[in-house]
Each structure stands twice: as structure tokens, then as C-alpha cells.
Amino acid sequence: MQRAGRVVALIPAAGMGTRLGLPVPKAFVMLRERTLLQRSVSAALASGVVDQVVVIVPADLAAQIDAEYADRPEVTVTVGGAERSDSVRAGLAASGPDTELVLVHDAARALTPPALFADVVHALRDGARAVIPGLPVADTLKRVDTAETVLATPDRSELRAVGTPQGFTAELLRHAHSGGGDATDDAGLVEALGVPVQVVPGDPLAFKITTPFDLRMARLLLDES
Ligand SMILES: Nc1ccn([C@@H]2O[C@H](COP(=O)(O)OP(=O)(O)OP(=O)(O)O)[C@@H](O)[C@H]2O)c(=O)n1
Ligand SMILES: C[C@](O)(CO)[C@H](O)COP(=O)(O)O
Fold first, then answer.
1. ipTM
2. 69 FRET partner, CA 20 to 30 A, in 13, 40, 177, 196?
């Protein structure tokens, strides 16, 4: 089915990044002269499939980031909430009513290739209502109890490590978030509605910069490029 409506990328950047252990909210950490957020906004716009970017930032940085993007009418800045899902809902509220497709993309996945945004949008335009990038897992995964005793070894051939951008029809994502609720990703809220979620091949460069090791890895990758 062909869809031609507006595509909005929501970029949650309001997290504190406690696992990174730096005195700056994670999205504002510098990665070779540009912040994680700046890199993620650029990647979304460079994809050629995104009409509007909504960045969701901590309240005390909103005026500064708004000024930074003052000459970019395609970039809107809004204030996030306590949990990632709250920040996504703030971004949805700031998206125009004419939005047809929404991509939710972590600012923390700062090295994501623009082509991944296009892959997700193409799968939506082919008719899927929910699309997420996923990669096979290389490690054997164990389910454990609170004492770290192994309970089970899931069959890893059935598992995917999923990232962002996660794409949805705007109608579906608004419905999934309408009851509030929290999930570690947006697809989780859609799954709870019983709607099929399609996995497309992810890209290892879209890894989430979460720990000091990840930040070091990102810097090394940029040095290499
Ligand atoms: N209340 C929140 C929490 C997270 N995020 C964003 O969601 C993305 C993924 O979250 P994560 O990597 O877990 O970031 P943090 O929550 O900041 O990290 P930590 O759990 O280490 O504090 C990040 O771009 C982060 O800025 C957000 O916008 N609002
Ligand atoms: C949305 C996400 O990036 C998919 O892998 C991830 O779940 C976000 O993690 P968080 O720690 O809950 O922010």
C-alpha cells in the first residue's frame, strides 16, 4: 500500500545517562566535536525520508537547544519526562496532526547510518504498521532468577537484539501510548495491543551508547572513518 503522509522522527534525548557516569545528560556528551543528539538529528535528516524531527530534551536545556535549531524549521524542540516512554509521549504531542508515520530514535544511538531510517520507512510504506530493526544475537543468553541462578537457556535462533529507529503508523503509536504505560521500547506497547511488529535487518553501527565502553567504542569507530 502506498502512503505519502508526513514522516516525523522523535528523538528522545532527555535521559540522564547514569550508566555513562558523566556530569552531562547523555545526549549532550561530545563525540568528536558534535554531541550525540546533533549526530542523531543529522542522521535522521540525511536519510531523506524524514519531514520533521522532534527532539525531546531535559527542561533546563530546552531554551538552549531551541536556539541552536532556530534556523531549522524542520526541527522542533520539546521537554521530556521522567521515563523514556514519557519523553516519547511528549514528542508525540509535539508532532503535527498531519503526521502519518512516526520513527522513534534514541539520541544515544548516535552512529546510526541514515539508510536505516530509510529501511524502516520503506517497510512501513510496504504495508507494515510497526517496524523495528533487529540483529541476531552472538552470545548464548540465559534467563536467571534474583540470585543469578540460571533458570533457562532460550533458543537464540529465535531472539533478536532490537534497536531504533522503530517505526509505526502515527495512529497506532498514539493508540499504544494513549493509556500511559511504560515499556523498554515502543514496540512493546504495540505488541501489548496484539498488533504484529515486523523486524527488519538492523545495523551494528546503531548500537546504543550506554556505558563508558560504548562511548570509547564510538570514538574509536569515528577515528577509523
Ligand atoms: N526519561 C528519559 C529517559 C531516556 N530518554 C532517552 O532515551 C534514550 C535511550 O535511553 P538510555 O540509553 O537508557 O538513556 P538513559 O536513560 O539516559 O541512560 P541511563 O539508564 O544510564 O540513565 C536516550 O537517548 C535517552 O536520552 C529520554 O528521552 N527520557
Ligand atoms: C528502545 C531501546 O533502545 C531498544 O533497544 C531500549 O530498550 C532503550 O533502553 P532504556 O534503557 O529502557 O532506555
1. 0.96
2. 177
